[in-house]
Design goal:
Belongs to the glycosyl hydrolase 35 family. It comes from Olea europaea subsp. europaea. Keywords: Glycosidase, Hydrolase, Signal. InterPro entries: BetaGal_gal-bd, Galactose-bd-like_sf, GH, GHD, Gly_Hdrlase_35_cat, Glyco_hydro_35_CS, Glycoside_Hdrlase_35, Lectin_gal-bd_dom. It catalyses: Hydrolysis of terminal non-reducing beta-D-galactose residues in beta-D-galactosides. There is one protein chain. The chain is of the alpha+beta class. It contains 14 helices and 44 strands. The protein has an 8-stranded parallel beta barrel with strand order 4-5-6-7-8-9-10-12, surrounded by 4 helices. Strand 16 and strand 17 form a beta hairpin. Helix 7 packs parallel to helix 8. The chain is globular and about 100 Å long. Bound molecules: beta-D-galactopyranose (GAL). The site of beta-D-galactopyranose has 9 residues, from loops.
Amino acid sequence: MIIEESKMRGVRFVVFLLFALNTVSFCFADNVTYDHRALVINGKRRVLVSGSIHYPRSTPDMWPDLIQKSKQGGLDVIETYVFWNLHEPVRGQYNFEGRNDLVKFVKLVGEAGLYVHLRIGPYVCAEWNYGGFPIWLHFIPGIVLRSDNEPFKAEMQRFTAKIVDMMKQENLYASQGGPIILSQIENEYGNIDSAYPSAKTYIKWAAEMATSLDTGVPWVMCQQSDAPDPIINTCNGFYCDQFTPNSDKKPKMWTENWSGWFSAFGDAVPYRPVEDIAFAVARFYQLGGTFQNYYMYHGGTNFGRTSGGPFITTTYDYDAPIDEYGLVRQPKWGHLKDVHKAIKLCEEAMLATDPKTTSLGSNMEATVYKTESGLCSAFLANWDTKTDATVNFNGNSYHLPAWSVNILPDCKNVVLNTAKINSVTAISKFISQPSKDDPSSSGASLSGWSWINEPVGISSQSAFTKTGLLEQINTTADKSDYMWYSISIEMNGNEHILKEGSGTVLHIDSLGHTLYAFINGKLIGSGKGSNGNRKVSIEVPVTLIKGSNKIDLLSLTVGLQNYGAYFDTLGAGITGPVLLKGSQNGSTIDLSSRKWTYQVGLRGEELDLSSGSTSLWVSQPALPTNQPLIWYKTTFDAPTGSSPVAIDFTGMGKGQAWVNGQSIGRYWPANKASNGGCVDSCNYRGSYSSNKCLRNCGKPSQRLYHVPRSWLQPSGNVLVLFEETGGNPKQISFATREVESLCSRISENHPLPVDMWTSDEEARKKAGPTLSLECPHPDQVITSIKFASFGTPRGTCGSFSHGQCSSKQALPVIQKACIGSRSCSIGVSINKFGDPCKGVTKSLAVEASCV
Ligand code: GAL
């Protein structure tokens, strides 16, 4: 008996082991191929939804949560670029630590049961410094980047092979049992390749090189219509429904569906309405697409000096479904989750056959996926930008709002309309943390400030003198944003330009990106470029003195160019001319070809002030404010709780900031967006473009800067700033990112929530449209209902008001159903609330808060 029992245990253990192995994904090799419809994994075509998360734009601490939120949002795949200049800052010296830990990131995605699309590039664009290229490439003799050039190809191949080998060694390709099902080589070269005479040969070489690395999974090239077989050419854009690959053996894939857009210092902040994204996604799957990727799903933060541009902001929020701080952005995240579920309900039919599209009238069409075995799914689209329609399809009538798609998993019942949102809306806010002086404060507190002046002009032993004006990137090799151009000129006292009323000006032409001009130690003028035009020219009145006059020009880069043909050769800095211009003929002095003294970087950088150590910090006498070129330091306690933290740099000009020695990026609240072009509410109907929907006009492009929680300790954190133009650090404050309210608004003619999908007509009628609320955190409950109205409520989340008709019962019914629970669902019907206005289509609108 005893032997039998232990045998049984053994059997149970083996059964358990088999079960366990089966549930842990990626233990067995997957065979990934493709055909004209889809990627084929282990012999099965797949409809896949993917989203971009760039690992260095968040911290390893944030990765698991971001990946979970992606999975919950309905993603199957996480896409990331590989950032060459992070991994190989010096040729042959690699860094895969911390935020650069690519292997860890890929493994975490795999452990969550998701696939990876690894876009190695190694040119990546991505609003990333120099498009991801290490600057040392630029200094290799004879190199021509992104072309059929031996020195470049050797480096590109070496790095690509290095990454592929690393992944192979860790068994991370699907062919080895890992999560990587796809890889990309190059990036949108087709957009600019006409400028490169050797483009065709280069692309052929890149394709062969990539294929020869034998990853066992397919390669793609995006925006490359001539991508050689077997590489799949894919589409990037706001819409890709009209795209077709370059062979009828390749599937229709969308590698970048821009979920919003990046922001630049000096520009307003773009956003993209979710109704339009949902429309674009549904249209793509409607017309035969089977793989699409949100660029970005989580945009994150350009920490340090990683942002490109020039002038890309430190935030890379992108209006993505997960915000910069890692909170889901609602209703964007939730509505797209519903769209993914709706599309997955059609997956079987979509993959079993090719789509058949017929017209439903002007600007309308129906696509049907129908198999002989009786599977049938359909998409009905109306791309008219104004007119809602009622269409007839298969003998039934359907309401089809303008710029929307109805999804019918059974070719009869609508599970989702892209313009009708069932998801909750959330208002996320930055809550200012009161200062320490406030006795009720439990938030962050800054203690006293100390400072160190940064000298104007040359202060380093490493300064050097050269005749003529030097290009900046060739000189700094991007070791620093800063470069001094200094010169002294002697005036004997008789020059016309010295005379009072002579109208003398200092004229400077620079390739960019920002410059400050000092004469005899005083800031006399400054200039800045913009994302659209990086060049700077200034002309400022000067007063010169008899004797020696010191001219110190501080030139700055604000992230190196990342896009365009030959972007790597654009250059920066004061290449001239530099003139002292007098009003009288012949009085102008051209300083361009004189002897200049140069210094790369600041003294404070040489002294490593960013770490906060050194004994040079002073705190007496009074704190200097509004003074250019000054380092500030303080210590602070972290805001209590676990909400994400930001520093509000209101009151400061431009500079860089570090928390406990970690660079949180460039700050520039003084750079404001112009006043025009913003819209209060953006009409999602009609083609989106990056300047269609803008916010923040007249305000700083970026005021708040993310400080990852994992960089903070409860108290004694060190904040160091380098301020370039002058500000008052006492105005700096902390904020935490919190969800303030949840809202939902559902009408009587909304489809049922996707989760309640059933093709049983009776059951659907019984259930009817339903309003659901859920607090974001599992340990929260709904504590109050701020607003509830059933009838014709007006306004949007945060500003709802009762309309002409409203039921008295709405508030008590909702309170009863929701208060004290994490989530609640209420049918939107007159059975629940009575009928306050017969014959009118009514809606239920609710605003609630969670604690
Ligand atoms: C694409 C590029 C991406 C990114 C995007 C804009 O053209 O492939 O890397 O730069 O534009 O955010």
